[in-house]
Design a protein that fits this description.
Blueprint: H1 11-29, E1 38-42, H2 49-56, E2 65-69, H3 73-81, E3 87-91, H4 92-100, E4 105-114, E5 118-122, E6 136-139, H5 143-156, E7 164-167, H6 170-178, E8 184-188, H7 191-197, E9 201-205, E10 214-220, H8 223-226, H9 228-247, H10 253-260, H11 267-270, E11 274-275, H12 279-286, H13 291-305, H14 322-325
Parallel strand pairs: 1-2, 1-3, 6-7, 6-8
Antiparallel strand pairs: 3-10, 4-10, 4-11, 5-8, 5-9
Helix pairs in contact: 2-9, 2-10, 4-13
Length: 328
């Protein structure tokens, strides 16, 4: 008996069979496309420096997190609104401004609390707050800049229309004072110490409005469900770098100096006037009854009263303490 010769399936049939086998194999291995990077935005500021340090030390790569340096906090908020960032380091008042404008954000950690790091500096010859009347003031066009300026003017007995504003990104406010473009500058460390060394006068600083300027890490609300591991890694890396800086500053001072664009010897002054809460202090600040959580409503009301937001905002659900507790 003669059997018919074996034949190969037509080429089209072979391709269908091969394609099915590949698809079946992919289904079995559970393969899926890699997650897009979680993009975190911040300006070059000491309080945000440990996030950039974490990237420099390789602590963020495996979690798919990338830091992005922007020119101003206003640019950071805009990038969040446009979907170009998933998380950001911002002042708490700026987070509330974003919330007012429709951004769904959650605060997951406090990065620093300003206790003298933000200040109003004046050129030589302007030695008293009331002497600011009629002068040019360099200030960032952000809620934080407006709050500091407003508090200063109130302390000096001046109204906003009695000064002339020169709007600059925060890193450029000191330069405006140096080159004569402005007579006063609402600025922060390390520029405050630099200006003092050059003969400028400190007329007002954040010690006179305790708890007003708080820098936080904010993330888009949907990330709490879609990227909890990445948020956990980001917060953990911040605290790890903070602890390393406090334990052995010499091991990271060069990296921080490069990030902040200052000399290594100036790094210590860049952190002057900043309280840097560790994980335990974060829990106390953010938990119900803590200074930050308790002051949130008052800060939102102040923003509305000062005309920085057009309507009140409900910030009751803004804080999520799971991440500082390490229990996402």
């Amino acid at each position: 008996m003669h059997l018919p010769p074996k034949t190969s399936p037509p080429s089209t049939q072979r391709r269908l069979l091969l394609g099915g086998a590949v698809a079946f194999g992919l289904g079995l291995c559970g393969c899926s496309p890699p997650l897009a990077p979680l993009r975190v935005g911040a300006i070059a500021f000491a309080g945000y420096g440990f996030l950039f340090l974490a990237q420099d030390l390789g602590l963020l790569h495996s979690a798919g997190i990338r830091m992005h340096e922007l020119r101003s906090n206003t640019d950071v908020l805009r990038a969040l609104a446009l979907g170009r960032l998933e998380a950001a380091a911002l002042t708490l008042d700026e987070v509330l401004t974003g919330l007012h404008d429709g951004l769904r954000l959650k605060v997951v950690a406090v990065l620093d609390v300003s206790a003298g790091a933000d200040a109003v500096m004046a050129r030589a010859g302007l030695t008293r707050p009331e002497m600011a009347r009629g002068q040019r003031v360099a200030v960032e066009g952000s809620a934080a800049g407006a709050l500091m300026l407003s508090a200063f003017l109130e302390s000096a007995g001046l109204s906003p229309d009695e000064v002339r504003l020169v709007t600059r990104p925060l890193p450029e406010t000191a330069a405006a004072l140096r080159d004569g473009t402005a007579d006063l500058a609402v600025t922060a460390e390390p520029w405050v110490s630099q200006l003092e060394a050059e003969g400028a006068t400190r007329l007002f600083d954040s010690r006179q409005v305790p708890g007003r300027i708080v820098d936080v890490l904010a993330v888009r609300s949907e990330l709490l469900e879609t990227r909890p591991d990445a948020i956990h890694s980001l917060v953990k890396a911040h605290f790890a770098c903070l602890e390393r800086f406090q334990r052995d500053p010499g091991s990271v001072v060069d990296r921080l100096a490069l990030q902040l664009q200052i000399e290594p010897g100036a790094v210590a002054s860049a952190f002057r006037g900043l309280e840097l809460p560790d994980r335990k202090a974060n829990e106390a600040l953010l938990s119900p009854g803590g200074d930050v959580a308790q002051g949130l409503r008052g800060l939102a009301e102040l923003l509305h009263r000062k005309g920085l937001i057009a309507s009140p905002v409900d910030a009751s659900g803004l804080i999520d303490t799971r991440w500082v507790r390490g229990t996402p």
